[in-house]
Amino acid sequence: MPLKIKKHRSKLKYIVLLLLAVFLLANRGFRSLIKNSLEYRRLKNRRIELELEKSSLENRLKIMNEPGQIEETARKELGLIRPNEIEYRFTPPKKDD
Q1: 81 within 8 A of 75, measured Cβ to Cβ
Q2: The model's pTM
Q3: pLDDT in the model for residue 87
């Protein structure tokens, strides 16, 4: 092929690519499609995070519903005691001892 035809083909390729890029970037529908695709991906990842959190909370609820677990948690976290029960609190030993 003559050199002149090769140059024209090369220029034609660049012009076609440039026109295609301008068409895609200037097209509001294409930009909307890209935006929606990114939002879909973000929401999909968020859904996975929420499902993991739900699973963790369901496991915690299952543990809390075991006999005696509610009382034990109330005693540890809230410091509750039964009526007529005496609670003894001791100061922790010093580090020097």
Answers
A1: yes
A2: 0.51
A3: 82
- Residues 39-65 pLDDT 10s: 999 999 999 999 999 999 999 899 888
Q: What angle do CA 6, 8, 9 make, to 5 degrees?
A: 65
DSSP annotation string for 10-71: HHHHHHHHHHHHHHHHH-HHHHHHHHHHHHHHHHHHHHHHHHHHHHHHHHHHHHHTSTTHHH
* Per-domain boundaries in the chain: 3-78
- Alpha-carbon distance 31 to 34, whole Å? 5
What sign does the CA torsion over 23, 26, 29, 30 have? positive
**H or E element, residue 73:** helix 69-78
pLDDT tens figures, 67-89: 888 888 888 888 888 888 888 88
Q: Report yes or no: 25 and 31 within 8 Å, Cβ to Cβ.
A: yes
Contact between 24 and 30 (Cβ < 8 Å) = yes
